[in-house]
Design brief:
The chain is of the alpha/beta class. It has 11 helices and 8 strands. The radius of gyration is 17 Å and the shape is globular. The chain starts with 5 loop residues before the first strand and ends with a helix. 47% of the residues are buried. It binds 2-phosphoglycolic acid.
Length: 253
């Protein structure tokens, strides 16, 4: 089953207007230079940069995504952004359930599921994040935690077209630590199994499961050549054109 790799940048809360535009332009230019890349590219800037980054990406094959959304289309939700608003400014993707949102904003699986359903209904694709903490890994509960996050946060009518899963061990995010390839492969294979149970084998076999957490040019090849790893969600290294592109190139894009 050939799944097209997705190389996704999660810019998090980084970038003023000028930095964001320069980064997007640089990425667009380098991706164009690849001709017909084997991978799909995505950047997810903060809300304030979406419109400018969309412009900077014009004519390139790099997709635009946001880092969160509300589950309602509009209304009295101060500080929130709806899936329809994201569509309106040119997003095709939204990241949901990132561990930083689960931790900083107390987001539950149930809430993430509601957001994902609303995003799908608005025509957005979702990148739904899951992953265990260090304590959970040490307690031998990594697979159990990821299984329950998949069961709770992925809407039951999700398909391989509208949903991407990102496995991001919390302890690997921004720390420079990465699990062993055997551990990554074990979790990804288990996630695919749970997806098959939840969404059917057809969807599970076609659905992309990204790895995220300290992906760098130096470890990308090893991680992204694992059989069930279908791309990467990249934080820190996505803020530098050279690193982001080196990760893609080292992964055979
Ligand atoms: P990192 O972040 O690449 O900086 O570890 C990944 C993420 O949180 O998506």
């Amino acid at each position: 089953m050939a799944r097209r790799k997705l190389i996704a940048g999660n810019w998090k809360m980084n970038g003023q207007l000028a930095d964001g535009i320069a980064l997007a332009r640089g990425i667009a230019q380098e991706v164009k230079a690849l001709g017909k890349p084997a991978c799909e590219f995505l950047v997810c800037p903060p809300f304030t940069l979406l419109t400018s980054v969309k412009k900077a990406l014009r004519g390139s094959k790099v997709a635009l995504g946001a880092q969160d959304c509300h589950f309602n289309a509009k209304g009295a939700h101060t500080g929130d952004i709806s899936p329809q608003m994201l569509k309106d400014v040119g997003c095709s993707y939204v990241i949901l359930g990132h561990s930083e949102r689960r931790a900083d904003h107390g987001e539950s699986d149930e809430l993430i599921c509601k957001k994902a359903a609303a995003a799908h209904a608005a025509g957005l694709k979702t990148v739904i994040c899951i992953g265990e903490t260090l304590k959970q890994r040490d307690d031998g509960k990594a697979i159990e935690v990821c299984t329950s996050q998949i069961m709770g946060s992925v809407p039951s009518d999700s398909t391989s077209t509208d949903t991407v899963i990102a496995y991001e061990p919390v302890w690997a995010i921004g720390t420079g630590k990465v699990p062993t390839t055997a551990d990554v492969e074990e979790v990804h294979a288990a996630v695919r199994k749970v997806l098959a149970k939840k969404l059917g084998k057809g969807n599970a076999n076609k659905m992309r499961i990204l790895y995220g957490g300290s992906v760098k040019p130096g470890n990308a090849k090893e991680l992204l050549s694992l059989p069930d790893v279908d791309g990467a969600l990249i934080g820190g290294a996505s803020l530098k054109v050279e690193d982001f592109l080196a990760i893609a190139k080292n992964s055979g894009c």
